[in-house]
Amino acid sequence: MAALGWLTPRRRSATARSVLAGEAAAEAARKSSLQLEQEREESAAAETEPAEQEFPVVGDVRAAAFFDLDNTVMQGAAIFHFGRGLYKRKFFQRRELARFAWQQAWFRLAGVEDPEHMQDARDSALSIVQGHRVAELMSIGEEIYDEYMADRIWPGTRGLAQAHLDAGQKVWLVTAAPVETATIIARRLGLTGALGTVAESVDGVYTGRLVGEPLHGPAKAEAVRALAAAEGLDLGRCAAYSDSHNDIPMLSLVGHPYAINPDAKLRKHAKDRDWRLRDYRTGRKAAKVGIPAAAGLGALAGGTAAAVALHRRRH
What we know:
Elements: H1 16-48, E1 64-68, H2 78-88, H3 94-110, H4 115-129, H5 134-149, H6 155-166, E2 170-178, H7 179-188, E3 193-197, E4 199-202, E5 205-210, H8 218-231, E6 239-242, H9 248-253, E7 256-260, H10 264-272, E8 276-278, H11 283-289, H12 294-314
Parallel strand pairs: 1-2, 1-6, 2-3, 6-7, 7-8
Antiparallel strand pairs: 4-5
Helix pairs in contact: 2-3, 2-5, 3-12, 5-7
């Protein structure tokens, strides 16, 4: 039996080196186990973590969208379309209609807001409505929207506004147009409401004066700032949309500015700051000068013809 002794394991005392090896192995096992557990947790978290939400963020009630009206939501200027409707109802004479037509033709060809033309149009509109009741002009405005404005809404911009509405956010028009006209358009498009130029009225009758100044340029930014404070909005989570460099103050207020059918100055400003651009006009030429799509060419031709006729009579 002694010859088989070599098959029997011998008891050997642990040396310092073996103790060290065992402790090192145990420590490595513990670390690897913790690392594997952490990797499994991270993998599980990645699987359950929702994908990055697209803009606009659904359910973000502290966000809203602000849309300029003229040439952003609608082709042309609302105040000019309104003037055409008032002329049809004999609120003023042919001479004043020709002036409205020329201003509208300029606006659509140039694709920019000329301050003198816009001021002239506002002064004309104020003098025309002076003495009329607000309720009367609101009722007529509903008719004018159907006659001259409904077919001039840009579908692309309308889709952007609807995306905000579908996300549960409020959507406001912000325009130098009369607040009554802007409110009608906002209601017809299913938007939340409108910020616009306020004409003074006493006992429901227009006086022919403004309250303050037209809602244009910096005044738009101040209106948006005030509304955001009243509504508890976070402007850094809001969006604004405009075609005009005059609205850079408003666009700069929000975290998501968009240049829509932009004029040359706004296009450059937006590209320099990596703002998002959308152009719903047709063709390269239209993109450069702001000529409307075929749906609006009839109105443009009519306005230009009226302006040419006036020019010929004068000369």
